Amino acid sequence: MNLHLYDSPIFRMACQQFDLVADFMNIPEAARDRLKMPKRALAVSVPIRMDDGRVEVFMGYRVQHHLTLGPTKGGIRFHPDVTIGEVAALAMWMSWKCALVGLPYGGAKGGVTCDPRSLSTGELERLTRRYTQELIPVLGPQVDIPAPDVGTNEQVMAWIMDTYSLQMGHAVPGVVTGKPVLLGGSLGRKEATGRGVAYLVSRAMDTLNIQAQGATAVIQGYGNVGSVAAISMAKQGIKIIAVSDAFGGIYNANGLDLNALNEYVAKTRGVVGFPEAEPITNEQLLLTPCDILVPAALERQITGENAAQIQCRIIAEGANGPTTPEADAILAKRPEIFVIPDILCNSGGVIASYFEWVQDLQSFFWSEGEVMDKLFRLLEQSYIQTLNHAKKNSISMRFAALSLGIKRVHEAKALRGLYP
Length: 420
Known about the structure:
This protein is an alpha/beta fold.
């Protein structure tokens, strides 16, 4: 298989994970490339007029991994490090995630290489609309449905929906999820990923017989996922002792006052300098002794270099791909650490996105309580299946989750056959 188009550390990591699981599952060599390689990839130039009058050209991407089970589903990220290889890896993981939790989707991912923090609101809107315009041939409620990711939010999704709808000549709320509720978004969607992380942390604590009262948690990445997970875990009685963002972290052994922290972040757009805590680096944060470590930032944070030094009982992967295969090999020799793998741990977001899509197609909307009840039921079912599969086959939770997801896609492709 020629990887030159997607070749990057993160895509090689996703392929390495797949190959290890495929070996365990005895998937025939003839079927592996078809399962692994993306179905479709689009790279586009996105020229926009900046506020100072000059024209700047950004690069944008959208990768659809497979369309075997239904339309593709996946986020759009605006970040300086976005590459087509990163997007392809994230699309592959989204495929296994959707299959694991039983959603009728293939995986997709998209992004624009930019720094959204440096763009004005007007520049961000123009960038979003032009990027959407370039993607229109491969978007649609029955083709590919984007959602928010790193650097994007419900406002960006509203611009995408509006741009697509203008081209269609009528409102098409089902083309995107993670929208404002007023435009067909779902109650509970914004909080779903973080609440899902906290729910699965609670289930892992039940499995390990760890009491929430007095337990401590450390969160890398205090964005939408990390902050909601922190609040939800704190409600269970877990003490949040350290958090970080892209610019640094903070630590308080007695527990952070999350209400005060959230007010501070709303004013300063970051956690650094919060007066009721000590500064800490992201590297130090990952090695801080705690019961629960939540990597909720970017990929490849827990590596072969730091995995042996991590001091926690549970790793709850709020981010996609935060643990490298080299780190997995080390963690496999540390049975005292229980890993909730990313494609299970952060699946609450795509599950709630599925609920939003269903509501949009029906034009019939649910209460937040109904959304959360359905979300936790699906998470519970997926957690139990993964845990039982891991125990039955004496494999890690990551291997169990990946093998369940990959098996379902593999079987679906076999049933549909190869055309022509």
